[in-house]
Amino acid sequence: MKKAIFPGSFDPITNGHYDIIKRGASLFDEIIVAIGVNAEKKYMYTLEERKRFIEEAFKDEPKVKVITYKGLTIDLCQKEKADFILRGLRNPADFEFEKAIAHTNRSLSKIETVFLLTSARTSYISSSIVRDVLRNGGDITKLVPPSVMNKK
Ligand code: ADP
C-alpha cells in the first residue's frame, strides 16, 4: 500500500492544496493530509477549523485522511507507515526551500519526497494571500474550496 503524507499549515486550505491532494490521490493508495502544530506560530483559523475545512472538502474521497501532528514529518511517516512525503511546487523559491527539506529528510530517513508541479490555474495561490485578502475585506471565493466559505 503506497501512502503519502501531505504536510502543511493549511491556514486555510486553498484551491492550490486541493489540486495537489486530488492529483496525489490518483497516484497513491492513501493521502494523509497532516496539519502541523507549531506553538510559536499564530494562525488565522483554529486547528479544528483547518481540519474541518479539509475533511469537508474531501468527504467523498475515501483515500484522503486528515490528521494533526507535532514534531518531525519523518517521525510521523514512520508512525503512519508512509514511505512518501508529497509536496507542491509553485516557483523557484518553493524549489529551493523544498530541496533543502527533502535532502535533510533523506539524510535522516529513507523517506522519498514526491513533488507535483502546481496547476497553471492555481499557481499563484497561497494561504498567506488568502489571509491578506480576507483581512482587507476581499472575496476569497475563487481561491478556496467551498468548505472554507461555509465556515459556521
Ligand atoms: P507551509 O505552512 O509549510 O508553507 P502550506 O500549507 O502553505 O505549508 O503548503 C503545504 C504544501 O502545499 C507545500 O508543499 C506547498 O508548496 C504546497 N502548496 C501551497 N500552495 C500551493 C499551490 N497554489 N499550488 C501547489 N502547491 C501548493
Automatic annotation (TrEMBL):
<keyword id="KW-0808">Transferase</keyword>
<dbReference type="InterPro" id="IPR001980">
    <property type="entry name" value="PPAT"/>
</dbReference>
<comment type="pathway">
    <text>Cofactor biosynthesis; coenzyme A biosynthesis; CoA from (R)-pantothenate: step 4/5.</text>
</comment>
<feature type="binding site">
    <location>
        <position position="41"/>
    </location>
    <ligand>
        <name>substrate</name>
    </ligand>
</feature>
<feature type="binding site">
    <location>
        <position position="87"/>
    </location>
    <ligand>
        <name>substrate</name>
    </ligand>
</feature>
<comment type="similarity">
    <text>Belongs to the bacterial CoaD family.</text>
</comment>
<dbReference type="Pfam" id="PF01467">
    <property type="entry name" value="CTP_transf_like"/>
</dbReference>
<keyword id="KW-0067">ATP-binding</keyword>
<feature type="binding site">
    <location>
        <begin position="9"/>
        <end position="10"/>
    </location>
    <ligand>
        <name>ATP</name>
    </ligand>
</feature>
<feature type="binding site">
    <location>
        <position position="73"/>
    </location>
    <ligand>
        <name>substrate</name>
    </ligand>
</feature>
<feature type="domain" description="Cytidyltransferase-like">
    <location>
        <begin position="5"/>
        <end position="132"/>
    </location>
</feature>
<keyword id="KW-0548">Nucleotidyltransferase</keyword>
<comment type="subunit">
    <text>Homohexamer.</text>
</comment>
<feature type="binding site">
    <location>
        <position position="98"/>
    </location>
    <ligand>
        <name>ATP</name>
    </ligand>
</feature>
<feature type="binding site">
    <location>
        <begin position="88"/>
        <end position="90"/>
    </location>
    <ligand>
        <name>ATP</name>
    </ligand>
</feature>
<comment type="function">
    <text>Reversibly transfers an adenylyl group from ATP to 4'-phosphopantetheine, yielding dephospho-CoA (dPCoA) and pyrophosphate.</text>
</comment>
<keyword id="KW-0547">Nucleotide-binding</keyword>
<feature type="binding site">
    <location>
        <begin position="122"/>
        <end position="128"/>
    </location>
    <ligand>
        <name>ATP</name>
    </ligand>
</feature>
<dbReference type="GO" id="GO:0004595">
    <property type="term" value="F:pantetheine-phosphate adenylyltransferase activity"/>
</dbReference>
<feature type="binding site">
    <location>
        <position position="17"/>
    </location>
    <ligand>
        <name>ATP</name>
    </ligand>
</feature>
<feature type="site" description="Transition state stabilizer">
    <location>
        <position position="17"/>
    </location>
</feature>
<dbReference type="InterPro" id="IPR014729">
    <property type="entry name" value="Rossmann-like_a/b/a_fold"/>
</dbReference>
<keyword id="KW-0460">Magnesium</keyword>
<keyword id="KW-0173">Coenzyme A biosynthesis</keyword>
<keyword id="KW-0963">Cytoplasm</keyword>
<protein>
    <recommendedName>
        <fullName>Phosphopantetheine adenylyltransferase</fullName>
        <ecNumber>2.7.7.3</ecNumber>
    </recommendedName>
</protein>
<dbReference type="InterPro" id="IPR004821">
    <property type="entry name" value="Cyt_trans-like"/>
</dbReference>
<feature type="binding site">
    <location>
        <position position="9"/>
    </location>
    <ligand>
        <name>substrate</name>
    </ligand>
</feature>
